[in-house]
Amino acid sequence: MGITDSLKYYWNVKVVGQPFLHWQRRQAERRPKVSSRWRSDILSPPLRIGAKTKELISRHYLEGRYANGHRPVAWVTSGGPVEILQALGFYVLYPENHGALCGVRKAVVEIYGEAENAGYSTDICSYARTDIGSMLSGKTPVGRLPKPDLLLACTNICQTVLHWYRVLAKHFEVPLILIDTPFVYTKASDHALEYVKKQLENSIPIAEQVAGRTLDYRRLKEIIHLSKDATELWLEIIGRGRHHPAPMSVFDQFIHMAPIVEMRGKKETVDFYAALLKELDENIDKGIGAVRNERKRLLWDNLPIWYRLRYFAENLGEHGICVVASTYTNAWAELAPLMNLEKPLDSMANTYMHPILNQGTKYKLDTMKRMVEEFQLDGVILHSDRSCKPYSIGQIDQRNLLIQEYGIPALLLEADHDDPRAYSEEQVASRLASFVEMLDD
Amino acid sequence: MSNPIPSRKEVIEDIKNRGELVAAVLPIHYSRALLRCFSIYPVEVWGPPKVDVSLGGAHLQPYVCSIVHNALSFLKMGGLNAADFILIPHTCDSLQGLTSVLIDLIKPEQAIIPLYLPRGQREEDIIFLADEFRSLYTRLSELTGKKPSSKDLLAAIKREETSDLLLAKLYKTRQQMGLSNLDFYRLVRSREYLPAEHFSTLAEETLQTSTQPRPGIPIILSGIVPEPMEVLNKIDEMNGQVVADDLACCGRRLYKPGISPEPFRRMAERIISAPPDPTRGNPIEERVKYLVEMAQNSGAQGIIFYEVKFCEPELFDLPNLRNSLKEHGLASIIIEVDINNPLPHQVATRISAFLEMLDS
Ligand code: SF4
Ligand code: SF4
């Protein structure tokens, strides 16, 4: 790590960037502006916390921009065990989150075009294509992404990440830590848990070598503690959707989940979610719902369609429909009870084996059914995501069972979370319209 | 070849007539020896082509590969009725999804037995895979009531090792054997369903038959499976000669003998040390090195990446592989197919143009 890079980091991040972002946020909080295009007739004003979310995300990418040479950088899959890296002082970047951000900012087509021009098939996950496109061209809406010194791929969300990170490893010529988490068809076996724990243990010396320092287990416990606190708060936040009207829609959750994915294990993330929870409680007390005239409530399954969040919020909001909960945002909450500070590595092995994407289709169906009951929902939208086979395979039967066995209206929508070419608004609009009609019958 | 190769159907009938058990096994890696110890005969299911895909389409989205679609369709049309068990290795997200849908939602009559394959080549991966085989042993024991000893296991492993050594020998001498592409792959792919001892006899007989080497433009075939097999006929017709392969059903399963005297570890060693395979997570550099050496040793002038559409494990590596191969003077082409469709005319034209380009 070099002194010049550190000076650059301090000047650009600490002296100039952070105070500016802080000032910008305070301004936004003092004079909240609602865009003229915001459908105030059907949706309540955006949550105040939005200004803070924006500040946190901007700060995260700002830090990343100047991280190389100042602190070690790791690129990690969204379900990856990040706590060890954080305890070693890594700046952690989540390419999937960056992909989502590119989707929201409608920058994906140009960026994944770079990957496709280089020969990457349109049939591979659009997050991967976006990331590879950014890697090859340097294009990103956040200025610049830091180069990784270390890569960590955890297969608890899919095997795609392994194939994708092998491409990154070849390009950047840096070590790739693999945490392979055997899929849990019914129950995790002891030898699988032991295997994951062993890989976590073995990852430590590799990460230490790259970081140039030794892991402090006390610090690791503190970080797991913070991670658990943030995750528990996120669980509570999602749980507030049980109120009628729901104070927050999943389209808000999709935006405000960024810190739980990429900044868990930090004090400011805990504070952020405590503030969000407080705001939701205030809105509940005042009877303010995300959708002004909430008549029907839905569950969303699978990833968001990042480039059309507003469209869905408005299209459904017009009919008094609020999408209240989602198996996707819930995935970052439901693991909180598994975290155990006393046995950090055992607990990490257990936690990271059990995200919804690493469990069988029955678990997912049961989760949907449970959420429909707990949140008193009227139906389910299953986004069949062309890019994400592990989330999507099984949805046809799940949809049928929701309808036939449990009497829950369910709609399967074909799209792609980050590739607008696999999305037809005309088709979506007509399918949504029929679904809404059916809900009203 | 002196004796004709029995078909899958004939082999299954023969096994069933003897009152033995059959396991339908989906791609790619598993231990044949472990099944055989329980007198279960593995018969692999790579698709198969030419099925009514609407049956699988009732459960799977169109963006899932045709290997998985066809396997499910085949199961639903009764094609796997003769199987007592269905073993599904965890090869990719799509097979993972199929396994889970079968276990949880479709619930066919046969027991669905998943097998997780680790994605690394580290000591912990060998230990895990050996444990996975131990747990499979326990499951098969419960299902069959049998308890084969370590000696039985080792004997079964050695029988498979002998068969695999003969398979490797066939590969080594393929250019001298004078078999057409189609005949060679009919022969080596019979390893997918013939019991090891039968395959060994067949391989030995073929190795003893001396014929004239066949001339042709030397190429390597890479991908999952050469289906529809018609593609091999086309390559024959166009004067192409497949001199080596990096196919998941064939060359990527040239398992070397294991080292450990402990049976489960030995089974694991054999798979972990197999030729590089993206579904087992080998780094791209290893694949490049392996393919370049393969081309040098076989004299291949170009590589056809013959891919199943929507196969992510294959698709991710292609740009890097092709660029690196180009740097080594090796031309390549990507052909994507749906194994259920007859070989499109356009594919034949592209292969023909590629071979002509190599020839010139
Ligand atoms: S979207 Fe699905 S396939 Fe893509 S990285 Fe995420 S989990 Fe994997
Ligand atoms: S063709 Fe590819 S995606 Fe399909 S089952 Fe085989 S490895 Fe999986």
Structure description:
The complex is a heterodimer of chains A (441) and B (360). Helices cover 54% and strands 9% of the residues of chain A. With 441 residues, chain A is of the alpha/beta class. Chain A has one domain. In chain A, the strands form two sheets. Chain A has a four-stranded parallel beta sheet, with helices on both faces. Chain A has a four-stranded parallel beta sheet with strand order 6-5-7-8, sandwiched between helices. In chain A, strand 5 (296-301), helix 13 (309-317) and strand 6 (321-326) form a beta-alpha-beta unit. The longest helix of chain A has 28 residues, at 3-30. Chain A is globular. The model of chain A has no long low-confidence stretch (mean pLDDT 96). Chain B is α/β, with parallel strands linked by helices and 360 residues long. Chain B has a four-stranded parallel beta sheet with strand order 2-1-3-4, with helices on both faces. In chain B, strands 6-5-7-8 form a four-stranded parallel beta sheet, sandwiched between helices. In chain B, helix 7 (150-172) runs parallel beside helix 10 (196-208). The two termini of chain B are 33 Å apart. The model of chain B has no long low-confidence stretch (mean pLDDT 96). At the A-B interface, helix 7, helix 8, helix 16, helix 17 and helix 18 of A face helix 5, helix 6, helix 14 and helix 15 of B. The structure holds iron/sulfur cluster (SF4) (2 copies). Residues 96, 125, 127, 157-158, 160-161, 303, 357, 387-388, 390-391 of chain A line the site of one iron/sulfur cluster (SF4).
Mean pLDDT of chain B: 96
Q: In DSSP terms, counting alpha (H) and pi (I) runs of 4 or more, how many helices of chain B?
A: 16
Strand order of the largest sheet of chain B: 2-1-3-4
Largest sheet of chain A: 4 strands, parallel
Unreliable stretches of chain B (pLDDT < 50, length at least 5) are none
C-alpha Rg of chain B (nearest Å): 20 Å
Alpha-beta content class of chain A: alpha/beta
As a percent range, the share of strand residues of chain A is: 5-15%
Q: What is the CATH class name of the domain at 8-145 in chain B?
A: Alpha Beta
Overall morphology of chain B: globular
